[in-house]
Write a structure and sequence with these properties.
Number of strands: 0
Structural class: mainly alpha
Number of helices: 31
CATH architecture of the domain at 380-440: Alpha Horseshoe
Largest sheet: none
Strand content: under 5%
CATH class of the domain at 380-440: Mainly Alpha
């Protein structure tokens, strides 16, 4: 060997050693989560020694997962991984990762080659056999996939997950008989296994062979009379059969069973309650009895109390609903959403004192939750506690991020609504102007500002412009159309007012609004349709019986100015 050759060999060895040290440092960076440094060091290590397939493999994989790969780049990265696999297939971790990448990229032929090689090298690794079977299935070769699972069963024994896979593969080529045979083989392997019998019964149920399904459900209960899941499956059977009495019995048996997981019980109870509300009073009584039993079993399970509260709201037992939600809040006192729900329940019950006690508690636990202020302030507005609404908005504005233009605009707009109801139009319009400065696209602020300008008889041209923009953004919104119509009414342009009012009514989807019907009646009257105006005033009066102006319009069958 010449001196030059020795020098070249020495240089190559030095580069290999350096590459190895850099690679080790790269792996250290990866271990501590410094992935950018890891990636850079991998590239450097590979450039020092491109013959090192392990370094190339990791570089290829890292490039795949961290970059947008063109078709050409994808092939380059895959080839780096493939090269290492072909060189050292016995590296199980790297080879399996390459196989998974091929599966994910739907390179099924290459994935098949990888998993076949690994099964040959490691015949005792059942996971590789699973991968090989599923890859055959991905290629549409379901029979070969089933054959591999058959071989797994020889060594591992039968199990529901394997049988289920085989059943699904039989169904992929419409082999119902083959699917049933797989289930029967499973049961035959252990006739006294409760889960196997339930699996078989459920399979028959899916195939609409109800009598056969019931045989296996009953067999499961003979083996284990306390198996709650058997009752659930039987409930499904009776539900499909339309037998509500037996369905109810099985659900009851399942829910009082202590062996069913609580999450499953809540899911079942939710569906049961939904069904019972469509049924008779007796069914509702059974639902309440079930809640009582479950609360006795799981007194500290907040999800049950929460579901019971929702149920009681549906049947309009607001006091009971508030009580149940109170238990939830005892368990989770900082949950802002549940305080909002408790507040709403008390508002529905017109129990305003308790509603705002809940509001105070909500803010005590969540003093910086702006969403709560946005919820509580309008609630004060709705019950005409305007000063409290203003104070709540003021605190919200102090705590809000002033760079959040949409939030600040929403708060200013809400404050404008309150000031107008206090008849302080100057402050109201100041707030609307601020709202639109923060967010010129706040269409609700545009609409409300326009409507209150019209109601106060100020600057109807500006009101028309603002309202026109809100209608342009949402041309089918009945509230915005109503405002636009009302402004034209105020301007004496009754024909245009009627056009937009008819559009508002058409888009209201039957929404019952006293204001909408009153406006429609007024506009019809001013357009000369006096007989058509009256029934709309009457509808409005039904919805707002305390309105003196509506009482006069209906009594005298004519329009009156406020």
């Amino acid at each position: 060997m010449t001196a030059g050759a020795k020098k070249n060999d020495s240089n190559a060895e030095e580069l290999q050693r350096k590459s190895h040290y850099v690679f080790l440092e790269a792996m250290r960076k990866k271990a501590i989560g410094e992935f950018d440094s890891y990636y850079e060091l991998l590239r450097y290590a590979y450039n020092l020694d491109t013959a090192n397939t392990a370094i190339g493999y990791y570089l290829g994989y890292m490039s795949l997962v961290s970059e947008d790969n063109t078709a050409e780049k994808l092939e380059t990265n895959l080839s780096l991984m493939r090269k290492h696999f072909d060189s050292v297939p016995e590296d199980q971790y790297e080879s399996a990762m390459y196989g998974n990448v091929c599966n994910k990229l739907r390179r099924n032929d290459e994935a098949l080659r990888v998993w076949s090689r690994l099964v040959g090298l490691f015949p005792s690794n059942v996971n590789f056999k699973y991968k090989l079977a599923d890859t055959y299935a991905a290629k549409g070769n379901f029979k070969q996939a089933i054959a591999i699972y058959d071989s797994i069963e020889v060594n591992e024994g039968m199990s529901i997950p394997i049988t289920l896979r085989k059943v699904n593969y039989h169904m992929a080529y419409n082999d119902t008989a083959g699917s049933i045979d797989e289930g029967l083989r499973l049961v035959k392997s252990a006739p006294a296994n409760v889960d196997y019998n339930l699996f078989m019964g459920n399979m028959y149920l899916q195939f609409s062979e109800h009598d056969s399904a019931m045989l296996y459900f009953d067999k499961a209960l003979e083996i284990d009379p306390n198996n709650g899941y058997a009752y659930l499956y039987k409930a499904d059977y009776y539900k499909l059969a339309g037998d509500s009495v037996n369905y109810d019995k099985q659900i009851y048996n399942a829910l009082i069973n202590k062996n069913i997981e609580i999450d499953q019980k809540i899911s079942v109870l939710t569906d049961y309650v939904r069904e019972s509300l469509r049924d008779t009073i007796m069914a509702s009584e059974r639902a309440e009895n079930l809640f009582s039993v479950l609360i006795d079993q799981h007194p500290h399970e907040s999800a049950i109390h929460d579901l019971y509260s929702q149920y009681l709201v549906t049947v309009k037992d607001y006091g009971g609903a508030a009580e149940q939600l109170g238990y939830v809040l005892d368990l989770e006192p900082a949950n802002a959403e549940n305080w909002k729900k408790l507040m709403l329940i008390n508002l529905m019950d017109e129990n305003y004192e308790e509603a705002f006690k809940a509001a105070d508690k909500a803010l005590e636990y969540n003093p910086d939750n702006i969403e709560l202020y946005q919820y509580i302030a309008p609630a004060y507005y709705q019950i005409e506690e305007y000063d409290k609404a203003i104070a709540t908005y003021a605190v919200a504005m102090e705590k809000a991020d002033t760079t959040d233009s949409e939030l600040m605009s929403s708060l200013a707009s809400g404050l404008g609504d309150v000031y107008f109801m206090k008849k302080d139009t100057l402050k109201a319009f100041e707030q609307y102007e601020k709202a639109l400065e923060y967010n010129p696209g706040n269409i609700m602020a545009m609409n409300n500002y326009a409507y209150f300008l019209a109601e106060s008889g100020q600057d109807l041209d500006k009101a028309e412009r603002l309202s026109g923009m809100s209608v342009k953004y949402e041309p089918e919104n009945p509230t915005y159309l109503d405002t636009y119509a009302w402004i034209y009414f105020k301007k004496g342009e009754y024909s245009l007012a009627l056009t937009y009012m008819k559009a508002a009514i058409a888009n209201s989807d039957g929404e019952q609004s006293a204001e909408l019907y009153e406006h429609y009646g007024d506009i019809l009257f001013m357009n000369g349709f006096h007989e058509e105006a009256l029934p709309n005033w009457e509808k409005a009066l039904e919805l707002n019986p305390d309105s003196e102006i509506l009482q006069r319009k209906v009594k005298h069958k004519t329009f009156f100015f406020k």
